[in-house]
């Protein structure tokens, strides 16, 4: 008998309820925290864990957590809605369809070469700049391109998500994960570069091969697509036998878009742009593109609302998923869980201790999905623990890096991941089923790299 996977909202609510029930079972506890003067971040004081009075979540509190979760990540939810509205305004000008048409014609007969190129570009965004939420605006374009090239939505989402995810996991210069973790561990900034660069190449290479083979299978037989039914409707927006030509109007809109992206790049690198600034910038790009493209003011409003409506389902998932962490934090069991997992590593042989750290960091990422947040919470514990286990602190950072990176592209508590598949209209269970083999391969490869780092004394210390 085929087991029917629950609706994504139902699945997340069940997880919230189970987590709330655990607040009655798991002892409450907390670490003392302080502000690190070098990084200006709140970090855990090693050895400061102590049990406190239990404060379990009531049944009413379960429903409160959903509102609080949405409130805490409201900036991401609204960002997703603004992105949806902005791209719908640009799409209304016909420029996206015409641009995709031009790419499809040039890529005729060599469509699959687009996959490694796009994944490599987005991997650098993850590996060097630590971009995640910032890449959400690109999903609609790459998904549309993927379908037009004869692939599917899964391939389109994967090119961006797994490209950036591979870069994030194999990051050799990500300041928000490696940089913060090394700073807390007292390591020289971006030390151990060469070893991480090798890991990045291997991790990205595996992801490219995985997506490429899947895309090749879909190209030959579209009915094998995980999103076949959904993509049939999307294909209706492209007349593959009569692709639109790029007109002067489209080129003007495209110029607005390119200028906007250049400003985005400058803002991210030089001005420290984050979600509010990016949302404002894409809203400006959308409105300016619509005006240049000849869309009437009333139609601009209609297109924006229509685009935002299309992403409401996925945008709200981000808030519901956040409620899981809210429950653990309010129930005061999050520190207990982290402490228990960290202590479990002490009993492992040295050869497996690094791998144990990797597994623990993967589990921690389910409850602390922020890379910088996870570094601030776990590294003050893991760095001294590495000293006790007589493995290098650099290995502890590598274990954190892989534990954070791999699970980011499959965990339902990861906000930007849920936003990405929401933009593609892919349910979590469909993505998880498709992604699990790659996640397993990445996990094995990560464990091998961590084990090697233990054996070679990956340093400088």
Automatic annotation (TrEMBL):
It is found in: Cell membrane. It holds the Pfam family DcuC. It is a multi-pass membrane protein. It comes from the Bacteria. One of its GO terms (cellular component) is plasma membrane. The chain crosses the membrane at residues 7-26, 73-92, 113-132, 138-161, 168-187, 193-212, 253-269, 275-295, 316-342, 409-428, 434-458. Keywords: Cell membrane, Membrane, Transmembrane, Transmembrane helix. PANTHER family: BASIC AMINO ACID ANTIPORTER YFCC-RELATED. This is C4-dicarboxylate anaerobic carrier.
């Amino acid at each position: 008998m085929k087991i029917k996977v629950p609706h994504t909202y139902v699945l997340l609510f069940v997880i919230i309820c189970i987590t709330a029930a655990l607040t009655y079972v798991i002892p409450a506890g907390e670490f003392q925290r302080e502000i690190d003067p070098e990084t200006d971040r709140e970090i855990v004081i090693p050895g400061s864990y102590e049990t406190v009075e239990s404060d379990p979540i009531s049944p009413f509190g379960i429903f409160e957590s959903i509102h609080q979760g949405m409130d805490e990540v409201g900036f991401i939810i609204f960002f997703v809605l603004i992105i949806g509205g902005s791209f719908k305004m640009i799409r209304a000008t016909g420029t996206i369809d015409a641009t995709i048409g031009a790419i499809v014609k040039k890529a005729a007969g060599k469509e699959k070469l687009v996959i490694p190129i796009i994944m490599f570009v987005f991997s650098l965004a993850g590996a060097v700049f630590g971009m995640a939420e910032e890449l959400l605006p690109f999903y609609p374009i790459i998904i549309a391109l993927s379908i037009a090239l004869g692939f599917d939505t899964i391939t389109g989402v994967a090119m961006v998500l797994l490209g950036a995810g591979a870069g994030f996991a194999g990051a050799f210069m990500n300041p928000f994960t490696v940089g913060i973790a090394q700073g807390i561990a007292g390591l020289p900034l971006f030390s151990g570069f060469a070893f991480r660069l090798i890991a990045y190449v291997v991790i990205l290479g595996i992801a490219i091969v995985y997506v490429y083979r899947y895309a090749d299978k879909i190209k030959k037989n579209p009915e094998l697509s995980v999103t076949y039914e959904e993509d049939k409707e999307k294909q209706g927006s492209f007349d593959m036998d009569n692709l639109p030509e790029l007109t002067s109007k489209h080129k003007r809109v495209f110029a607005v878009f390119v200028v906007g992206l250049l400003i985005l790049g400058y803002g991210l690198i030089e001005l420290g742009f984050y979600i509010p600034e990016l949302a404002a910038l894409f809203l400006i790009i959308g409105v300016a593109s619509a005006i240049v493209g000849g869309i009437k003011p009333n139609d601009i409003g209609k297109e924006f609302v229509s685009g935002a409506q299309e992403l409401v389902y996925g945008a709200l998932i981000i808030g519901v998923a956040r409620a899981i962490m809210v429950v653990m934090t309010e129930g005061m069991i999050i520190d207990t869980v982290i402490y228990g997992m960290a202590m479990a590593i002490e009993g492992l042989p040295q050869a497996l201790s690094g791998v144990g750290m990797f597994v623990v960091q993967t589990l921690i990422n389910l409850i602390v999905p922020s890379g910088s947040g996870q570094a601030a919470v776990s590294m003050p514990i893991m760095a001294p623990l590495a000293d006790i286990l007589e493995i290098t602190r650099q290995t502890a950072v590598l274990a954190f890096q892989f534990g954070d990176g791999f699970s980011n592209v499959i965990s339902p508590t990861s906000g930007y991941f849920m936003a990405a598949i929401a933009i593609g209209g892919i349910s979590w269970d469909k993505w998880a089923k498709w992604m699990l083999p790659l996640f397993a391969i990445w996990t094995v490869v990560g464990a091998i790299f961590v084990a090697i780092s233990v054996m070679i004394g990956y340093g400088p210390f």
